[in-house]
Amino acid sequence: MAVRFALLSAVLLGAVAGRAVGPVAGGPLADLVVARLEVSARVAAAKFGSGKAVDDPDREQQELTSVRERARALGVDPVRAAAFFRDQISASKIVQRGLIARWTAHPGEAPGASPDLDVIRAELDVLTGRLLDQLLADRGPHTVAPSVLDRLDNLRRVALRTALRSVT
Prior knowledge:
Blueprint: H1 2-13, H2 28-50, H3 57-74, H4 78-105, H5 117-137, H6 146-151, H7 154-164
Helix pairs in contact: 1-4, 2-4, 2-5, 2-7, 3-4, 3-5, 4-7
């Protein structure tokens, strides 16, 4: 357990924050997942600036309930959709914890302004709809090309693997 924690801490603290990425070679679903991870960095900035906790179990449960309902309405298996979005939440937390740890350790790298979390959540809601559309359209396993992983920093690479684990 201590080794696992030390490894995770090293990965998270060694990540380079704020590196933007473009479209990835993993297809539309992977593109949207990477976009969601970039939004997660802004969530981290909002929570860092406001002092809000990364974990919000009540909100997470509300989101998963909403995802199941939206998935059912679109004809996507709600169990599959919930598993996929549980992975998205876990991946987002990896990004948030990693960036907050980095900014805490290196205050000069912290964002100067705290974005509005309500605005960011509206963006996440739009991404959720697009991700659900992709789950409906593309049912195959999703792999990420090594060239894609090479373009991501360590933090987002770990988060991306987590985000795609239920569809690979």
